[in-house]
Specification:
Layout: E1 4-6, E2 18-20, H1 21-34, E3 36-37, H2 40-47, E4 57-58, E5 61-63, H3 68-79, E6 84-88, H4 90-95, H5 100-109, E7 115-120, E8 123-128, H6 132-149, H7 153-171, H8 190-197, E9 202-206, H9 219-237, E10 243-245, H10 253-262, E11 266-272, E12 284-286, H11 295-303, H12 305-316
Parallel strand pairs: 1-2, 3-4, 5-6, 6-9, 10-11, 11-12
Antiparallel strand pairs: 7-8
Helix pairs in contact: 1-3, 5-7, 9-10
Bound molecules: zinc ion.
Length: 325
C-alpha cells in the first residue's frame, strides 16, 4: 500500500504518506528480485481458487489517485515492468480538488507564525510549526485527534474548510485549491486517468466519492459513496470498476455487504497482513510499503517479520523500547 511518490525539489514536503522517488525505485528493485508482482485482478482470480504456479505473489496499490503516480511512480514501474492499481476519489477528480489534509499541510507549512491553533466545536488543537520536524510530529497527532473527535467526515470537512479559509486569508494563498498548483499533492484528472487506463500495467479502482470513513455514516451515504463512485469511474473511463479501497481503512460488515450490492467484487482494507485462497474478498489485507532505505528493514516489512513482531509484542505486552529489530 502506497500513497504519493514524490521527487521533492520545491519549498516544502508533504508531511504525510509519501515516499521519495529514489527510495521507491531502490525498494521495488529489491522486492522484485524476491516477489512476483501481479495485478490485483490476477490476485483476485487466484484468491478465488484459480491455479497458479508462481510463488511469493505481491500486488502494488496506490490510494488517493495523486498526479505524482503518473509523474514519479509510473516511470519506475515501467523500468521493472511492475503492475499496480490506483484508487481514485471521484468528487476530488471531478472538481480538481486537493484532499483537506494535504491542503491544510501546505497552508500550515507556508504559515508565517511559529504556532497555529485549530479550533473545532470549541476544542483547541494547537500546532507547533517552528521547524519541519516539530510540525510533522504535531500535525500527525492533531490530525489523528481531530478525526477521533469528529467521526462524520461530511461534518469534518465543513469544519476544516473554515480553518483552510482562515489560513488562506492570513497567508495570502487565495488559489491553493485549484487542484494543480502543487505537484506533491495535486490529483489526476480524467484525461490523465484515461491515458493511464490505456497502460497495460495500470488498473483503476474506486476510493469512494468523498473519501469519507464509511463505517461512521448511515447506510444510504455508504451506498451512494460506493455506487456513485463506481458509476462515475465506469462512465468516464469506459472500464469495469471492480474493486473499492475503503478510505482510511474504515469498514464494517455493512460496508462489505453494500460494496457487494454496489457491484464491486473486492474491497481493500488497511488491516495489516497477507491474503490466502478463499479469504473474504471484501476484507483484503495490505502491508504499508516500506519507506526506509535500509534493505534489511525493507525485507523485514515485506516478509511480515514486523507484522509478527508487533503481534507478539501485543500478545506479551512488550513495550516498543525493548524490541529493536
Ligand atoms: Zn485514501
Amino acid at each position: 500500500m502506497l500513497h504519493g511518490v514524490v521527487n521533492n525539489s520545491g519549498d516544502w514536503a508533504p508531511s504525510l504518506h509519501t515516499i521519495a522517488g529514489k527510495v521507491f525505485d531502490n525498494n521495488v528493485q529489491l522486492l522484485s528480485k524476491h516477489y512476483n508482482f501481479i495485478t490485483l485482478n490476477e490476485a483476485i482470480n487466484i484468491l478465488q481458487g484459480e491455479p497458479c504456479l508462481k510463488k511469493n505473489l505481491a500486488v502494488l496499490t496506490f490510494d488517493d489517485g495523486y498526479r505524482n503516480f503518473q509523474m514519479c511512480a509510473l516511470p519506475i514501474l515501467k523500468k521493472y515492468s511492475l503492475p499496480a492499481s490506483i484508487y481514485v476519489v471521484t468528487d476530488n477528480t471531478n472538481r480538481g480538488k486537493y484532499f483537506w489534509y494535504d491542503e491544510l499541510d501546505y497552508l500550515l507549512q507556508h504559515y508565517k507564525g511559529k504556532s497555529y491553533e485549530i479550533i473545532i466545536q470549541g476544542r483547541s488543537y494547537p500546532l507547533l510549526i517552528n521547524t519541519y520536524k516539530e510540525f510533522k510530529k504535531t500535525y500527525s497527532a492533531v490530525r489523528k485527534k481531530i478525526k477521533r473527535d469528529v467521526k462524520d467526515d461530511y461534518k469534518l470537512s465543513e469544519h476544516i474548510n473554515r480553518v483552510i479559509d482562515d489560513l488562506k486569508s492570513q497567508s495570502g494563498f487565495e488559489d491553493t485549491n485549484d487542484g494543480k498548483a502543487d505537484s506533491n499533492i495535486s490529483i489526476l484528472d480524467w484525461q490523465e486517468l484515461k491515458i493511464l487506463n490505456d497502460e497495460d500495467l495500470v488498473e483503476i479502482g474506486s476510493h469512494t466519492v468523498n473519501h469519507i470513513r464509511l463505517a461512521y455514516v448511515d447506510s444510504d451515504s455508504i451506498y451512494n459513496e460506493l455506487y456513485e463512485s463506481k458509476r462515475e469511474i465506469e462512465r468516464q473511463l469506459s472500464l469495469s470498476c471492480d474493486v473499492v479501497c475503503y478510505p482510511n481503512g474504515s469498514f464494517n460488515d455493512e460496508v462489505c455487504q453494500l460494496s457487494k450490492k454496489a457491484g464491486f467484487i473486492a474491497g481493500l482494507t488497511t488491516v495489516t497482513g497477507f491474503n490466502s485462497v478463499n479469504d473474504d474478498l471484501f476484507r483484503l489485507k495490505r502491508i504499508a510499503f516500506p519507506v526506509t532505505d535500509n534493505k534489511l528493514r525493507v525485507m523485514a516489512c515485506a516478509t511480515g517479520l514486523y507484522y509478527y513482531r508487533d503481534k507478539l509484542k501485543n500478545l506479551f505486552k512488550i513495550s516498543n523500547k525493548r524490541v529493536n529489530f
